[in-house]
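Quick one: structure tokens for this chain, please?
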Amino acid sequence: PGCPLVALKCMKSAPEAQRAHFQAEALLLKALRHPNVVACYGCVQPSPIKCHSVDLPDLMFLQEYCAGGTLLDKQLTGSYTALEALQWLADVAHGMAYLHMPRPGLCITHRDLKLENILLSDQGVAKVSDFGLSRLLPPVPVEPRTPRVTPVTPRAPVSMSKGGRDMTGQRGSALYMAPEVIMCEAYDHKVDVFSYGVVAFELLTHSRAYADMDLSEEALVASVVGVGGHALRPVPPRRWPPSVTKLVTTCWAHDASQRPEFGEVVSSLEALLEQARSTPLDEPNALLRRLAPLDNATPASACCTLQ
């Protein structure tokens, strides 16, 4: 009685490098404590002895059990309101602000933020999870620079080191990747802000980004990088309030230095939530009405000027 349910993440018959990566994720998670980050309780290496002819995994770690599933589950069913979407986005921004917070000279970059990696507790609180691609790096701001706009075909990961940062390109899910990741350039924690912009668009529109584009993944990611001063991005619905459109589009700005910090994102969302809750529940709210998705509407994607 009183013991919380836990989820087990298991690894079986993995090479040594993958085992080390798994253990590193467990150690990283165990050190984190925030209501919007999935808690990890420890890593276990079971005895090699077989139990009742059942092969045990090589490694297991115990983490917080989130009964509400993922935000992708919610987004695919569309069973949520605009107010819930804003609250979940605020939850995620709080969790990411905590991860990016400098700690002994380091901050944590998630590198794989997407709807699948955001879980919901049984009380509907959104929590950032799956830190398998996370890295520790010095919190060095990205210097303003002229974006490279030559599209490239995605290639194998290469290690990049610049200005005290040591990050690797071509990690994470392609459609959430920032241009500097696709281009295998050095990057910092602002890649998570880019991914967050795509998450916000998908959650608020009840649709997947670039769903209207009949392109191969390689052609799509090349278009996200941009050519001739333009890059492909989803188009926010015209009915959205300007404050919401600005928040989402600045998050996926081409130039990382133009993207906000998560602390700024939190402030923007708290203001939106206050506005959304400013009317009684039984009365229509102008903000929520403009954010509510239209039936059978598929958001478009289009080229925009690089920022």
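The longest strand covers residues 6-11.
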